[in-house]
Amino acid sequence: MVKILVTGGCGYIGSHTLVDLIENGYDVISVDNNSRSHASMLERVEKITGQTIKNYKVDLCNFDDTFAIFQENTDIRGVIHFAAYKSVNESVEHPLSYFENNLFSLINLLKCVQDFQIPWFVFSSSCTVYGTPDSSPVTEATLPKPAESPYGYTKQMGEQIVNEFAKSAAITKCILLRYFNPVGAHPSAIIGEMPVGKPQNLFPAITQTAIGKLPGMIVYGNDYPTRDGSCIRDFVHVCDIAHAHTLALDYVAEGKNKSSCEVFNLGTGNGVTVLEAIHAFEKVNGVKLNYTIGPRRPGDIMAIYASNDLAKSQLGWEPKYGLEEMVATAWKWEQRLKADETVFAGKPGELN
Question: Is residue 286 part of a domain?
Fold first, then answer.
């Protein structure tokens, strides 16, 4: 079996990708220091897959500790790099922390990829690299505008670092996957999004409000020039995002890549407003949400959604889940968390 190192394996997209990789015949190990994740997620992945996953509780900003993982696992063939801080709002408040963590960890990882001649590297990027586009849908050829947040800048810089590394790499082929807005949960409701502290993303804010963890939620701005005044986003199911990583590895493993570094958008191609997502949740799940309208939030852009034609034609990727399934699986997961009744102080929803 081909061994893949997944950084941030205890995180939201990382845990779902572990499941998809295992289901498609890959051997996996994880590195996650659990500063923004829950160690129990790997136990949940094991419940789905029947496989125990080794995790290295290592800070990737520490080069020696990172290097030691590769020394111990000389048969690693590919790396999928998720581990990063990811809150737009938090990055505005703490920019230096974001630059330090997200860039140093990437550089250390690529040094190891270079030293150990790892042939495949997949980077977790984001639609934030486009800044505020003139129009949507955006394609991979859309020229990036200045990022709207330090988080967005770390993704722009991260892509450039990977691109320059790939030009000089002897054997490593790199893929940049630009996610739009991953949402939902595994259909089993065994794994899903479990933010540490107050959620920064829309869907956990919705589900935690619906379940009563939060007294209410805020829609940040209803005065944008959109069809209902709220921001437009491209919501895509986390399982669809996860499967794209497996397809990306297959793509480079089969030698289909056209260059040393390629980029693909991962979105449904459908723009949905924040208020439309809220109303879809209410309709599908029969739950009324307590939300208020607040001011615009720093770092947010008005509207962005993807053209996913390239991922479809080159990777063979096809999103399977629609908006109704996104909101239904997210709610099923939140109900599962409540049923488990294992809420730990400081880490809402942590599981035994």
Answer: yes
For the question of residue 151 being annotated catalytic, the response is yes
pLDDT in tens, 152-188: 999 999 999 999 999 999 899 999 999 999 999 999 9
By three-state DSSP, how is residue 262 classified?
A: strand
Q: State percent of the chain over pLDDT 90.
A: 91
Residue 346 lies in a domain: no
Give Cβ neighbours of residue 162 (< 8 Å, ≥ 6 apart): 106, 110, 121, 123, 174, 176, 261
CB atoms under 10 Å from CB of 348, counted, come to 18
Nearest CA to 130 out of 234, 222, 236 is that of: 234
Identify whether 345 is part of a domain: no
Buried b (16+ CB within 10 A) or exposed e, 285-303: beeebebeeeeeeebbbeb
Rg of the chain over CA atoms, in angstroms? 19
Percent of the chain with pLDDT over 70: 97
Record the tokens describing residue 292, joined without a space. Answer: 């208020």
**Average pLDDT over the chain, rounded to an integer:** 94
Q: How confident is residue 22, by pLDDT bands cut at 50, 70 and 90?
A: very high
Does residue 349 form part of some domain? no
> Which one from 12, 130, 151, 305 is the annotated catalytic residue?
151
Rounded CA-CA distance 219/169 in Å is 45
Domains of the chain: total: 1
The whole-angstrom separation of Cα 165 and Cα 1 is: 27
Average pLDDT over residues 270-295: 97
Structural domain boundaries, residue 158:
3-340
